[in-house]
C-alpha cells in the first residue's frame, strides 16, 4: 500500500462551489466585469498544464476531445454495450478511448494522443509520482536535465540582472563542445523578435555569467496569454473605478511584454482598490509547485461579495455594543470602543490554477507588502465545501443526526463564522501600561473575577499578545473566537439577524455545537504524537473546546469507540441537545471567562497552564484520544474534487451555468468552459507541448530513427 497516497479512490467526493446567491445580487455591469475576468482566468489557467508535466497538455487534449464527442453518460453506455462491466469501465480507459466516438471521428489523432500520454498518466514510477528536479521528480518549469545546481545558478543569474523568476521557465541545452547553454524564457504574448520597444526588449539578449551562456527570450504560452489579454481588455470596459482600469492596463502590459515590473504596478492598484464588489487577481502568483520555489504558477480568480451575507455581518457589527455585554466577563475587560476587525468574506466564482485555497493573503511581492500592504480575504464558499460532505462519507455521527447535520451545516456555519470573526476576534481588552507609565484601566476598581483581587499583571510598553503568548498565541486566540461563536449563537437576537427563529433556531444551535464537537475529534489528524505537538491552530482550538465540553459531564457530550460495518475501528460522537443550555453553556461560560481574564492580564503562566492542559493528547481513559487519532486517520476522507460553474454571455446578459456535484458534473463543467474554441485550444496546447518535448526525453527512451 506504499502507493496508496498516489492513488485517488474511484468514489472520491465531489462538491460544487456554490456562488448562486452572490452572483444573483451582482448588477449587470458587475456581472460583465466578472464574466470577462473569469474568461481571462480560465484561458490563463491552461498554462498550468504546461507548467506541470510533459504529458499534462496531452491528457487535457485527449479528455476534452473524448467528452466533446460524447458526454460521460453516453460514453458509459457505449462501453457497457461493448461488454465492459461497470468496474472495468472505470479502469480500462484504453478500451473506452479507442472505442469512443472521438476515436471514430479522428482515429489517428486520438490514437496518437493516447500513445503520448496513456502510459504516463497512470505511471507510478518513483520519479514520476511527484514534483521535483532532474532525477528527483518531474516538473516542466525546468527541462528534464536541470538539477538543483542549475536552478541555483539560474537564480543567481536572474538576481544579477534584477529579473524576477515568477513568469519564467528554464531550458538547458548542451552545445557542440559539451558546454551548457541556458534559455530563460519569459511568459508573454510578444516574441523575442518584436520590433516594439519596451522596458523588456533591452533585456532580451545573450549573457555570459560565471562562464556560462544565458539567453533571455520571451513568448512562452503566447497564444494562451493572447486570449487572456483580449478578455482583460473587455473587462476594462466594465471596471467599477479607475483603479481597476489602471490595474488591468498594467496586467495587460505585463502579459504582453513579459514584465513582472508591470505586474507589480498592477498589484499596487489592486491593493488600493479596497473592498470591491468583484475581487480578482491574475498572473504568475504562487511558487509552491516550482521545485526550486521561485517560479509562479498561473492563477486567476474572480470572487464576489455576498451582499446578503455582508448585510447580516454589518447587522452583527451594528449590534456589537449590546451583544458584547452578553459575554461572560466584566465590562472593564471589554474595549472602550468596539472596533470591527478587518474581515472580508467573498464567494469564489472562478478559480483557475491547480487548487483552490480557502483564503488568500497576497500579493507575494515582499517589497509591495512592506510599502503598500496586502489583502487578506476569506473565501466563504470554498470553506463551506471543505466542511460539506455526502451523507455516506459523514463520519462519527449517529444515523439520526446526519440529515439534520446536512440540512443545517451551511446556515450554522455562517452564524459561527460571523460571530467568530467579528465578535470573537473583535472582543476583549488588553490591560496596558504605556511608556509614560499610564494605565488603560483603573487599578483601584477593576477586579479580577477569577481571584476577586485587583489586577496583578498587564502588558508593558512594547509587549503584545503575540510576543507574550508566542507559541500558544494564535491557537489560544482562535479558541477564544470559536468559543465566543458557540456562546453567542445561543442568543435569540443573533439568530434573528441571520433569519432563524423557533425550531429552526434551535436546530441551528444544535448543529453548530454538534459540528464543533465533531471537529474536535477530526482535529486529531493535525496532532503529531512523535513530537507531542499540534500543526494547525484552529484544529487545536476545536480539540480544546471538545475537552471542555466533555469535562462538563452529565452526558452532554460522549465519544465512544465502535466497530464499523467493515469490521475496522470507528467512533461515534453524541451531543445531548437538551443539555446545551443547562450544562454546556455554564461550562463554556467559565472557560471563556478564564481565557479572557488570562489574556487581558497578560498572565502567560496561567494561560499556558490552562490551554496546554486541555490541548494535551493522551491515551488516558475514558476517551483514549491517541487511539481515537488512529481511527480518525483510518476514516479520513480523501481531498474532494470541486466543481466550478461557468459564465456565458447571452446578448448583453451574463448567465451563470451550474453543474451537479458529481464526476459527470465536473466533466460537463470542463466541456462547456470553452464552447467556441475548444478544438483550437487543444491544438495550441499540444503544439506548445510538442515544441518543447525534446527537453524531457531521455536519449535512451527516444524511439530509433528520431532525433
Ligand atoms: Zn479566527
What is this structure's SSE topology?
Blueprint: E1 14-16, H1 20-24, H2 28-45, H3 47-50, H4 56-69, H5 72-81, H6 86-91, H7 93-98, H8 101-105, H9 107-117, H10 148-160, E2 168-174, E3 180-187, E4 206-209, E5 212-220, H11 222-236, H12 242-257, H13 260-272, E6 278-286, E7 297-305, H14 307-318, H15 320-324, E8 345-352, E9 359-362, H16 366-371, E10 375-379, H17 380-387, H18 399-424, E11 432-433, E12 459-460, H19 465-488, H20 492-497, H21 502-522, E13 527-528, E14 533-534, H22 537-551, E15 557-563, E16 569-575, H23 580-600, H24 604-615, H25 625-634, E17 641-643, E18 646-650, E19 653-657, H26 663-671, H27 678-692
Parallel strand pairs: 1-17, 3-5, 8-10, 11-12
Antiparallel strand pairs: 2-3, 4-5, 6-7, 7-8, 9-10, 13-14, 15-16, 18-19
Helix pairs in contact: 2-11, 4-9, 4-27, 11-12, 12-13, 14-18, 18-19, 18-21, 19-22, 19-23, 19-24, 21-22, 22-23, 23-24
The structure holds zinc ion (ZN).
Zinc ion is lined by residues 420, 425, 478, 481.
Instruction: Give, in spatial order, the strands making up the sheet with the most strands.
Output: 6-7-8-10-9
Task: Indicate the overall shape.
Answer: globular
Strand segment tally = 19
Largest pleated sheet: 5 strands, mixed
Q: What percentage of residues falls in helices of 4 or more residues? A: 40-55%
Distance between the termini: 39 Å
Structural class of the secondary elements? alpha/beta
User: How many helices?
Assistant: 27
**Please, what is the average pLDDT?**
93
Which molecules are bound besides the chains? zinc ion
Give the oligomer, counting copies of the same chain as homo and different chains as hetero.
single chain
Amino acid at each position: 500500500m506504499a502507493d496508496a497516497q498516489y492513488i485517488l479512490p474511484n468514489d472520491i467526493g465531489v462538491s460544487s462551489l456554490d456562488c448562486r446567491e452572490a452572483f444573483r445580487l451582482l448588477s449587470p455591469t458587475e456581472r460583465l466585469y466578472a464574466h470577462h475576468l473569469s474568461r481571462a482566468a480560465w484561458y490563463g489557467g491552461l498554462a498550468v498544464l504546461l507548467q506541470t508535466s510533459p504529458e499534462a497538455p496531452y491528457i487535457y487534449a485527449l479528455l476534452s476531445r473524448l467528452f466533446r464527442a460524447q458526454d460521460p453518460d453516453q460514453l458509459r453506455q457505449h462501453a457497457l454495450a461493448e461488454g465492459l462491466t461497470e468496474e472495468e469501465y472505470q479502469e480500462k480507459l484504453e478500451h473506452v478511448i479507442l472505442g469512443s466516438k472521438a476515436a471514430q471521428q479522428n482515429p489517428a489523432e486520438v490514437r496518437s494522443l493516447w500513445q503520448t500520454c496513456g502510459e504516463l498518466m497512470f505511471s507510478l514510477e518513483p520519479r514520476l509520482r511527484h514534483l521535483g528536479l532532474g532525477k528527483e521528480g518531474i516538473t516542466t518549469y525546468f527541462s528534464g536535465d536541470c538539477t538543483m545546481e542549475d536552478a541555483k545558478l539560474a537564480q543567481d543569474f536572474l538576481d544579477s540582472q534584477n529579473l524576477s523568476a515568477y513568469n519564467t521557465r528554464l531550458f538547458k541545452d548542451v552545445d557542440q563542445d559539451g558546454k551548457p547553454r541556458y534559455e530563460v524564457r519569459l511568459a508573454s504574448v510578444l516574441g523575442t523578435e518584436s520590433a516594439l520597444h519596451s522596458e523588456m526588449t533591452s533585456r532580451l539578449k545573450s549573457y555570459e555569467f560565471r562562464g556560462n551562456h544565458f539567453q533571455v527570450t520571451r513568448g512562452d504560452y503566447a497564444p494562451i496569454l493572447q486570449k487572456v489579454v483580449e478578455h482583460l481588455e473587455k473587462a476594462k470596459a466594465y471596471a467599477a473605478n479607475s483603479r481597476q482600469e489602471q490595474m488591468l492596463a498594467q496586467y495587460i502590459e505585463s502579459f504582453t511584454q513579459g514584465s513582472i515590473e508591470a505586474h507589480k504596478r498592477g498589484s499596487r492598484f489592486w491593493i488600493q482598490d479596497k473592498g470591491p464588489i468583484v475581487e480578482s487577481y491574475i498572473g504568475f502568483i504562487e511558487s509552491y509547485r516550482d521545485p526550486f520555489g521561485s517560479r509562479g504558477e498561473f492563477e486567476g480568480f474572480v470572487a464576489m461579495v455576498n451582499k446578503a451575507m455582508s448585510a447580516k455581518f454589518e447587522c452583527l457589527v451594528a449590534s456589537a455594543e449590546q451583544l458584547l455585554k452578553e459575554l461572560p466577563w466584566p465590562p472593564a475587560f471589554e474595549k472602550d470602543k468596539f472596533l470591527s476587525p478587518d474581515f472580508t468574506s467573498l464567494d469564489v466564482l472562478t478559480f483557475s490554477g491547480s487548487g483552490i485555497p480557502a483564503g488568500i493573503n497576497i500579493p507575494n511581492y515582499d517589497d509591495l507588502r512592506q510599502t503598500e500592504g496586502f489583502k487578506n480575504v476569506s473565501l466563504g464558499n470554498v470553506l463551506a465545501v471543505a466542511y460539506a460532505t455526502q451523507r455516506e462519507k459523514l463520519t462519527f455521527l449517529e444515523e439520526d443526526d446526519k440529515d439534520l447535520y446536512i440540512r443545517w451545516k451551511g446556515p450554522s456555519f455562517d452564524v459561527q463564522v460571523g460571530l467568530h470573526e467579528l465578535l470573537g476576534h473583535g472582543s476583549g481588552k488588553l490591560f496596558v501600561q504605556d511608556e509614560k507609565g499610564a494605565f488603560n484601566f483603573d487599578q483601584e476598581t477593576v477586579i479580577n473575577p477569577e481571584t476577586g483581587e485587583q489586577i496583578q499583571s498587564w502588558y508593558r510598553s512594547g509587549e503584545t499578545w503575540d510576543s507574550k503568548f508566542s507559541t500558544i498565541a494564535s491557537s489560544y486566540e482562535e479558541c477564544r473566537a470559536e468559543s465566543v461563536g458557540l456562546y453567542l449563537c445561543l442568543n435569540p437576537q443573533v439568530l434573528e439577524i441571520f433569519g432563524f427563529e423557533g425550531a429552526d433556531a434551535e436546530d441551528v444551535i444544535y448543529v453548530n455545537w454538534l459540528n464543533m464537537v465533531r471537529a474536535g475529534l477530526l482535529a486529531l489528524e493535525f496532532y503529531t504524537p512523535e513530537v507531542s505537538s499540534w500543526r494547525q491552530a484552529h484544529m487545536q482550538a476545536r480539540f480544546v473546546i471538545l475537552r471542555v465540553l466533555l469535562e462538563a459531564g452529565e452526558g452532554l457530550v460522549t465519544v465512544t469507540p465502535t466497530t464499523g460495518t467493515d469490521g475496522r475501528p470507528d467512533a461515534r460522537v453524541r451531543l445531548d441537545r437538551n443539555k446545551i443550555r443547562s450544562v454546556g453553556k455554564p461550562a463554556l461560560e467559565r472557560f471563556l471567562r478564564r481565557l479572557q481574564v488570562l489574556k487581558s492580564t497578560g498572565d502567560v503562566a496561567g494561560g499556558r497552564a490552562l490551554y496546554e492542559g486541555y490541548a494535551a493528547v493522551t491515551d488516558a481513559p475514558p476517551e483514549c484520544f491517541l487511539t481515537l487519532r488512529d481511527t480518525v486517520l483510518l476514516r479520513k476522507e480523501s481531498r474532494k474534487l470541486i466543481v466550478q460553474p461557468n459564465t456565458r454571455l447571452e446578448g448583453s446578459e451574463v448567465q451563470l451555468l451550474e453543474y451537479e456535484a458529481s464526476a459527470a458534473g465536473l466533466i460537463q463543467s470542463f466541456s462547456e468552459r470553452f464552447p467556441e474554441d475548444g478544438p483550437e485550444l487543444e491544438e495550441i496546447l499540444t503544439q506548445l507541448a510538442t515544441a518543447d518535448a525534446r527537453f524531457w526525453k531521455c536519449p535512451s527512451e527516444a524511439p530509433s530513427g528520431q532525433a
